[in-house]
TrEMBL record:
Residues 25-85 form the HTH tetR-type domain. Residues 48-67 bind DNA. Keywords: DNA-binding, Transcription, Transcription regulation. This is TetR/AcrR family transcriptional regulator. Residues 9-22 have a biased composition (Low complexity). Residues 1-22 are annotated as: Disordered. It comes from the Bacteria. InterPro entries: Homeodomain-like_sf, HTH_TetR, Tet_transcr_reg_TetR-rel_C_sf. One of its GO terms (molecular function) is DNA binding.
Length: 207
């Protein structure tokens, strides 16, 4: 394996080991970022490790140092999506004091990515669809979808709704459904229109 990164323990000084370890983490992150992008654009099944290595600018042989199999890399991509979703939801909570504003902001974030979503679909939704085709994928897909669903349920509960789970299912279904329609029809404006309709619907739900 050429240009491989050796563990810090065989690098000599602690300082050298830390530098090499940092470079190794950087390459690993580059591979995960590249995998997220290529999976999103071309799908999980169609993408090879060679495709990801090329997108990351890293020799294919080096990929196996960080990820022994494509399945290992898929799991890292799922974790990256979960981390990104948690960060996004935390940012929404920090920016809005009340649950109604947070729920509206969730849909607003979808509209803000309208051009990208109209081309490729929702990043999380598209990945869930791809994962569902893999032998051990459905469980991972459920984990990705459960995160925003549970979050939305907490917001509706904070609004005093006894049917919080049902409302959460409805809002996430509308979120994902509008992304699918916008992508299928190549209509980014559809997301803005649906976002406005959902905002009006949320006002009636919280009244």
């Amino acid at each position: 394996m050429t240009d491989s990164v050796e563990p810090a323990s065989v690098q000599g000084s602690v300082g050298q080991g830390s530098v090499v370890q940092g470079r190794g983490q950087d390459k690993r992150k580059r591979l995960i970022d590249a995998a997220c992008q290529v999976f999103y654009a071309h799908g999980v099944e169609r993408t090879t490790l060679a495709d990801i290595a090329a997108a990351a600018g890293i020799p294919l042989g080096n990929v196996y140092y960080y990820f022994k199999t494509k399945n290992d890399l898929i799991q890292a991509v799922v974790e990256a999506h979960l981390s990104e979703a948690r960060a996004m939801l935390a940012a929404v909570e920090a920016a809005h004091d009340g649950p109604l504003g947070r729920l509206k902001a969730l849909f607003g974030a979808l509209a803000d990515q309208s051009e990208l979503i109209a081309t490729y679909g929702c990043p999380q939704g598209s990945l869930c669809t791809e994962l569902d085709k893999l032998p051990d994928g459905p469980g991972r897909a459920a984990e990705l979808m459960r995160l925003p669903l549970d979050w939305a349920e907490r917001q509706f509960s904070a609004l005093g709704r006894a049917d919080a789970r049902d409302l959460a299912v409805e809002v996430i279904a509308r979120y994902q459904g509008s992304a699918v329609l916008a992508s299928t029809l190549r209509d980014p404006d559809l997301l803005a229109r649906e976002s406005a309709r959902v905002a009006a619907w949320l006002d009636t739900v919280s009244a």
